[in-house]
Each structure stands twice: as C-alpha cells, then as structure tokens.
Amino acid sequence: MTPSIFVWLILLTPLLGFIMPILLGRKHNGLAAWLTIGFTGLNLIFSVLLLLQNLHAQNQHLSFDWFILGEKAYYFGFLTDSLTLLMLVLVNFIAILVQIFSLEYMHEDPDQYRYVGFLSLFVFSMLGIVLTDNLWIMYAFWELVGLSSYLLIGFWYQKPSAVQASKKAFLVNRVGDVGFLLGIFLIYYIFGNADLQTLHTDFSKNPNVHLVPLAGLLLFCGCIGKSAQFPLHTWLPDAMEGPTPVSALIHAATMVVAGVYLVARIHPLFGIEESIFVASIGCITMLLGSVYAIFQTDIKKTLAYSTISQVGLMVIGLGTDASIFHLLTHAFFKAGLFLAAGSVIHALHHSGNHHFDAQDMRLMGGLRKRLPITFICYLLCSLALAGLPLFAGFLSKDAILAHLFSLAEQKQSTALYVIIGFFFVGILLSAFYMTRQVWMIFFGTFRNKKVQIESIHEGSWKITFPISLLAILSTGFVFTLNPLDAENAWFWHFMNPNLVEKVAENHWIAYLSTAIALLGVALGYFLRNLYFNFEVPTLDAANEALFVKPVLNFAEQLQKFDKKRIDKLVDSLAMIQVIFAHIVAWFDHAIIDGIPNGLAFSAGIIGRITRSVQSGKVQIYIAMSFLGLIGLILFIIFSF
User: Fold this and answer.
1) 326 in a domain, yes or no?
2) Domain NADH-Ubiquinone oxidoreductase (complex I) chain 5 N-terminal: where (predicted)?
3) Do 149 and 204 sit in the same domain of this protein?
C-alpha cells in the first residue's frame, strides 16, 4: 500500500474505535473493550509498516488539496519524518498496553464501553497532532485532545472532585491555547501560511523576521498549558481523579508530551534569548515538580508531580533530539510506574475492605512479598526515573545535559550554566522522592490495620504483562548494547539516518549525574521513615487569590451592574416603546383609520337618504322635482 493509504488508515482506525463502543452501549462492555484493543493493535501494525516503508526514505510529505479562496489555494497534508513515525508507534504501543491493563482494572465498571471509546477518541486526536503538517489542523486536533482529556478525567462524574478536576484541566489548558492560537495567527502573518516545514527554512530575509521570536513564544504557550509547565501546571495533579490507566496513557506518556513535540517542531523560531527563556520555564517546572513530589502521600499524586518535573527536563532540552529521547524513555518508565501504581491500588481495592484510601502510601508497606511482579517492575521503572546507570533514564537525561553543556560553551551563556546546576538538583530530588516512595509502598511493615495482608494478591496477566513489558523497556539494553554508552544508542541514527559523527558526550557529566543520583537514593533511604505532616503551599492558592477570586468578584459586580443598571435601562426603553406603540396604535385607529371610516359612514348616510327617495311613488318624484326646481331658481337669483 502507498504511504497515503497507510496514513489515512492510521488516522481513521481509532476514530472507528471510538464510534463502535458508543454504538454497542453498556450491554456489550466486554465486546467493546476487546474491539478497541483490536483496532489499536491493527493501528500499531499500520504504524510499524509505515515506519518500515519510510525507514530509508525520510522526511516524506504527503499533501492534499483542501479548498481555494479567491486566487489562493489551501492545502493540508501529513508528515512522515522520523519524529512522526516514532510518535505513531509510541502512542499506539502505550495505548494498547493501557487497554489490556484496563480489561481487569475497569472490569467492574458499568460504563466500560464509554471509557474505552473515550480512550480511542484520545488516540485519534493525538495521532492527528503528530501527523499533520499544518498548524491550523494541529490546533484542531490539539483541542480534541483537550476534550478527550476532559472526558477521561471526569469519567467518574458521580464524584464532585472528578468533575472539578476535569473542568480545571479544560479551563487551564484554554489559557495556554489562546497564546497558541495567537501564535498561529502571527505565523500566518509572517510567512503567509502555517506549514510546519516553512518554519525550518531560511527566513532571515523575511521583512517580518523581527516578529519571529514573538511568534515562537506565543506558540510555546500551548506547550505551557498542555505539558503542565509553570505557571499552568496546577491542573495535572488534580487530573489524577481519573482512572489510573488514563493517567498512564494521557498524563504520563502522550498528552503531556504533546507540548514537547510542538517545541521540537517550532524550535527553529527560537534565538538564544528565547531558548534561555524556554529552558528557564522548564527548569522552574522541574524544580517545583520535584519539591512537591517529596511531600505527597498519595501514590498517584507523587507520580503526577514527578511527571511535571520530567516534562520540565524535556522542555529544558529545547525540543532537540535529546528531548525526544527523554520523551521516549519517559513514556516507558512513567507509564510503567502509573500502571504498577494501578496494580497496587487494584490489589488493595480487592482485598475485601473498601473503607480506606487505597492510594495513601502511609497505609501501605511490605507489599513486595504480596505483589512481587509489581514490586520488581516498580523498582526498575523507579531506577530509570532516577537516572541510574544501566537504565533508559540515565541515557536520555545525560543526553540533555550534554546538549545543554555544549550549547552553554558555544554561546558562553551564564544562564545556561545556572540551569545545568539546577538540573543536577532535579536529579538529586528525583532519586530522593522515588526512593522514599518505593520504601513506603513495598518495604517495612504493612501499616493498614483494616486489611489482612494475606488477602492482597497479584492481578492476572492483563495487569502483570503490560507493566512487565514496560519495565523491560525501561532498561538501557533496549537502546544500546552498552547501557553506559549513550553515544551508540540506535535512537540517534533513527532520528538522523545520515548521522556520521557520534553524538558528543562529556563523560564527567555522566559520572557527576550518577554520583548525585546515588546521593539522592542514600538520602531517601536514611529519611525513609520521615513523614511530612504539612502541605507545601501550591500555586492553586496564589491563582485563587490573584485570578479566580478577582475574576469571580468582577463577574459578580458585572452581574449586579447588569441587573441594576442595564436591565433597568432596557426595561425603561421597553416601557417607552410600549407607550409610543400605544400612541401610534391610537393615531392609527383614530386618524389613519378614522378618516376613511368617517367618509365611508357619511357616504352610507347619503346613500340611505337617496335610497329613501326612490320609493316608486309618482307624487314623491313630482314633489322632489318641484323642490329641485325651487332650489335652482333660488341659486340663480342669489348668484346675481
């Protein structure tokens, strides 16, 4: 098949996976779940075939006529370059593992059909983002991703907290999307089109080149919202109200990295000043996420703040291949962590007692013996997140560090050196909070007195298979035969088949990052039993004080003004119109209609009089003729 057919099949298959379960309904939950797995598996096959077909023919561009407006023709198309092919396989691969996991995790939910349908809608939207070659079309799919996220976060709409979380995610993302849309408008003004390939051309002679950095930063606003970057990161922890598999797919491996994908597409728009600004936003986000993760007691919220931190690392990489490398490794180990957390929650929920918080790590402990597969997978993925040698996170984190250090040397930028310093702090904190989390969940003694630990057991293959596969993919051996050598990872040659020279690497960075990560592990171990009984203030309070309350107060004052002033003015104008209408109606009735009615009435009277004369009696006719003659004589006399 031709590439264009593959692309259309890849895009439309998940859309069918959304429509079919909704049509099947609640009575066919099981069939709907397996059907979506089949569609996603088929889509994964299509994606792999497209990858193999384009493996030695990179950067293909498929373009189609859209419409003609005046003399200008508009097109839309698809990109099948290395980045697109990688994202296609990644999204479908994580999606099918999440759907398999959900077979058991969501088995008892009566609305499972709706859940799997929404998942397929999300996959459709995400694939649209990575396939399109045009910012306009990307924005349409961008909003569909936001809608899908809203539906999945608020899936359990009976819970007020889930409803609030879904609304918060939707509205906060709209803030970033406004900037994204303005950036698209500005790109169209500068270049006359919104094609992604135009952004990678030489535009130094463009008369509006001075506006290019502004356009790039406006587009970056979309990344700030969708990828939960400071200051729009507050929606992601609340999004954990959705089902745990949703967190693994959307809020760890795909949706939150859509912004990183966007930065990878638009990074040619950034000069050194804009790059420092973008990296600074990523740095602040990384540190905030790491600090907040330390103080969490909810197993999913710890991972949520960890996601914020890790996506911040990708943003620091400025959309380069190093960023995409960490996007790939993060997808594996973070999806593995979320699904493993789901395995723990599922096991506790099915322990025979539902009257406790199954996500509170303070009520866990000692679970490694009851959940051995989950423990091993959680441990491996945690080591990858901490960036320790032999694991995937070590390779990708050091690749970002090496890129930053090379850029700092090249530009002699003090700001970049400062960011590198904070990067090491982030590595320390990541290793620290992950060590504490692993200990709180799996080591020590079981701390929940309401549950017999003997009743806790591992899930079926539907749960253990996805997390085991993701744990394996979190090891460094998957990317290179020597997991201590990031230079020879296959990823670099896949992204750039013409790569001749090895990727530059500063070995002292690897040594230093490893030492700092080990220090974080040691601190986490020594402080493993330390519990924080206070909550760190979040930006939610600041947003509430600076934005939400003032907006609500302003809206309340507008409502009062509308009711007391505008409504009264409108009512007064309406009353005046009613009075005027009554006057017009009277004038119409009395004058306009009155004159012809009066003339008609007079004519009627005269008619009746004249008819009375026509009685048929001769004497009356003679008398009337005589009276007429007298009248004529009198007229003649008085006329002279």
Assistant:
1) yes
2) 66-115
3) yes
Residue 165 Cα distances to 1, 240, 245, angstroms: 44, 8, 16
55: left (phi over 0), alpha (psi -120 to 50) or beta: alpha
Q: Are 364 and 447 in contact (CB under 8 A)?
A: yes
- AA letter at 42: L
Read off φ and ψ for residue 64, nearest 5 degrees: -135, 145
* Alpha-helical regions (H) of 158-257: 160-191, 212-226, 235-238, 244-248
Residue 278: inside a domain? yes
- 């420092």: which residue's tokens? 276
Q: What is the mean pLDDT of residues 135-143?
A: 93
Q: Given this model, what pLDDT does residue 505 score?
A: 57
CA dihedral 329, 335, 336, 342 (to 10 degrees): 170
**Domain around 367:** 134-536
What pLDDT, on the 0 to 100 scale, is given for residue 499?
Answer: 61
For the chain, give percent helix, strand, coil, nearest 5. Answer: 75, 5, 20
Tallying the residues shown for the chain, one arrives at 640
447 versus 332: the higher-pLDDT residue is 332
Whether residues 466 and 608 share a domain: the answer is no
User: Nearest to residue 456, comparing CAs of 347, 377, 353, 340?
Assistant: 347
- The pTM assigned to this predicted structure is 0.86
Has residue 39 got a pLDDT over 60?
yes
Distances (CA, A) of 540 to 165, 218, 234, 237: 12, 23, 7, 11
Q: Do 304 and 318 have their domain in common?
A: yes
Angle of CA points 261, 265, 267, to nearest 5°: 110
If residue 472 lies in a helix (H) or strand (E), which one and from where to where? helix 461-473
